[in-house]
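USER: For my understanding, would you kindly supply a protein sequence with its structure tokens?

ASSISTANT:
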Amino acid sequence: MNRRNKNITLIVILGILVLISLTLALTGRRDFNTLADKGIFQVQDTAKIDQISIKSKGYEILLKKNNDGIWALNDKYKAGQNIVKVLLAILKDVEVMRKVPKNHAGEIAEKIKNEGYLISVYGNDQLLESFYSLGNDTKTLSWFMQENGNFPMVVHIPGYQSYVAGIFEIPLNDWRDRLILSTNYRTLRSISVSYSQFPEHGFEIISGFDIPIVKDVQPLDTAKMMSYIEQFGYLQADRFIDHGQSGHYDSLANTPHTVTIAVKDIDEKNTKTLLFFPLLKDDPMMLGLIKEDDQLVLFSANRIQGLFAVKSDFIKRNSKNPPSKQKPEK
């Protein structure tokens, strides 16, 4: 093939490519894998967001950001700030992967409207985004659909194999900040620990002239006492549960508690009385009740076992006088 024929061939090929490009452009076809369509559920500037509503049948989770940037839950509790950060990251990064198949679109859309969660995102009293969320039965696909739309789409977070819809399925109590109280030896007024079946093992730590003391304990092991107080520096629950939420924990809560730990602090919000119930067989969680709030809480028993000290733990001993005691059962 001579040079002239080669040039003609190249021109023909180039012309065909141009025609294909023009045809695609003129037909106005849109693919939901284009960058613009991938982000239809995104709120890029999450700093503008100051309110998020998650509604399902029977209840609403309402997150509001106050003036100092702290998120509150249902105008009653402090929200867990880290889980809100995760939610904001999802709202910023979520992308559409594809539409659902046409032959299932109507069925899935109906399911989403009947069983899904309606998410409304606000900033400065303006609605920024509103959509439904739901997952398939096996929790492997997440569907989003605009509130006024009928076209469900499969969404994901690029680079992660995660069930995006799952964050909207989190129960209300799990959105709460898990902190129960925070005290230290400077603000502490007292800690009293009592065992209903073994009252002789109870003790009370009270504020002293310079540092707290354990009442009626001499000689006092100050290091052990301070180490004990430090456990209340950031006392968290593993989970909050409501009365009526769990049958076996409800039954347990109706039995006598075995341990009472009462903390008094200069700051009233850190003054709490915790009642603890016996461990259930093969259950790693210990049930507690915050008396002031009538709130049931669950703790990992291993994590909080240090709270159940006895009076003799704080007696300063030397090697010639080793401790001899039997701790009460919780």
The chain is about 25% helix and 30% strand. Residues 179-314 form one domain. The chain has two domains: 35-171, 179-314.
